[in-house]
């Protein structure tokens, strides 16, 4: 306990100067890491023609199902408005 009491108080603003310097150094280190230590680009994953056509067929089926539901909803609305 007596050892801490013997330490001189730092001059005003000294801690802020150290913190500002440390923050600047940390920012530069992060910037350098981001710029120079980038991950190598992964090779693109190619899709076969068969897989592509299968996916397109599924998308087309979903769109058609949506249109059928929309047509049904319009038909029901038409019937209600005629009454």
Written description of the protein model:
This protein has one domain. It is an all-alpha fold and 83 residues long. It has helices at 2-5, 14-36, 49-82. The protein has three helices and no strands. Helix content is 73%, strand content 0%.
Short account of what is shown:
The chain has 83 residues and is an all-alpha fold. Helix content is 73%, strand content 0%. The mean pLDDT is 85.
SSE topology:
Blueprint (H helix, E strand, L loop, with lengths): L1 H4 L8 H23 L12 H34 L1
Q: Return residue spans where pLDDT drops below 50 for at least 5 consecutive residues.
A: none
Report the sheet-strand fraction. Answer: under 5%
Largest sheet: none
- Using the alpha-carbon principal axes, give the shape: elongated
Radius of gyration: 34 Å
Can you give the mean pLDDT? 85
* Number of structural domains: 1
Order of helices and strands: HHH
What's the helix count? 3
Main attributes of the structure:
83 residues; mainly alpha
């Amino acid at each position: 306990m007596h050892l801490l009491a013997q330490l001189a108080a730092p001059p005003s603003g000294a801690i802020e100067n150290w913190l500002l310097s440390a923050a600047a150094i940390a920012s530069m280190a992060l910037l350098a890491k981001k710029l120079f230590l980038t991950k190598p680009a992964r090779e693109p994953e190619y899709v076969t023609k068969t897989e592509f056509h299968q996916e397109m067929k599924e998308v087309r089926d979903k769109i058609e199902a949506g249109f059928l539901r929309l047509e049904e909803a319009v038909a029901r609305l038409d019937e209600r408005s005629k009454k």
